[in-house]
Design brief:
This protein is mainly α. Helices cover 48% and strands 6% of the residues. Bound molecules: iron/sulfur cluster (2 copies). The site of one iron/sulfur cluster has 10 residues, from loops.
């Protein structure tokens, strides 16, 4: 799997969302919490494009502002889809935005904006979160987000996922095995079935075909 396909997936998402009306704009960073999760492929993409000189301050920011309390996922998106198909109870995971800001946020702007993970890109709210008190994401956008996340994980199915503050330092310091053993990172999986409800099947068919094209190119 080559890293450049991640950029194609991000570009496709931007294209799909470009005609819709969102409140998100530069300087609005209520959603930039320490709970952001990404795949290893996305982390490689981010680190590769930063280059060695820019990488150092980014890793330093994480070290200096490491969030002691942060969302540490137990299930990837495809694990979640598999668990839903099995029909058993799914344990709710703790994820609280008040745990803190993302270490990569500076003056309400993302220091890695161009290369930010899909988890950040996909927070597209119809109302300003600070005013509404929550992110107002339409059901169709949620379906699209799940779809893209399932494909991104599928493209990195031999890889890992985790919180940005765990994954970026672990990748840079060759600490993946330790972080996996400690439960701070988890293994990715292929798509067991796409999480698309019946009412969204028609609007997403073309997007699924284009994601397939990127994946198999
Ligand atoms: S998701 Fe909410 S806080 Fe984040 S940029 Fe959009 S409106 Fe602002
Ligand atoms: S990586 Fe950037 S966009 Fe994502 S949460 Fe952190 S500051 Fe916000």
């Amino acid at each position: 799997m080559t890293i450049h396909r991640i950029k194609q997936v991000y570009d496709l998402y931007d294209e799909v969302m470009s005609g819709l009306d969102f409140a998100c704009k530069k300087g609005c960073a209520h959603c930039c919490t320490c709970n952001v999760v990404l795949t290893g492929l996305e982390a490689h993409f981010l680190l590769k494009h930063l280059g060695p000189a820019e990488r150092k301050p980014v890793l330093q920011r994480i070290e200096d502002q490491f969030p002691p309390q942060r969302y540490i996922p137990k299930l990837t998106t495809n694990d979640f889809a598999k668990a839903c198909m099995a029909g058993g109870a799914i344990e709710e995971e703790e994820n609280d935005p008040t745990w803190g800001r993302c270490p990569l946020l500076e003056n309400n702007a993302c220091t890695v904006y161009e290369y930010r993970p899909f988890g950040c890109r996909s927070l597209m709210s119809r109302q300003n979160c600070a005013k509404a008190g929550y992110a107002d994401i339409s059901p169709l956008t949620l379906t699209m987000n799940n779809l893209f996340m399932q494909f991104i994980e599928h493209m990195d199915q031999e890889g890992i996922s985790g919180n940005l503050s765990d994954l970026l330092p672990a990748l840079s310091a060759q600490g993946i095995e330790t972080a996996l053993k400690e439960g701070r990172l988890i293994s990715n999986h292929p798509i067991p079935a796409l999480m698309v409800p019946p009412e969204h099947q028609a609007p997403v068919q073309e997007i699924i075909a284009r994601l397939e094209q990127i994946r198999t190119a």
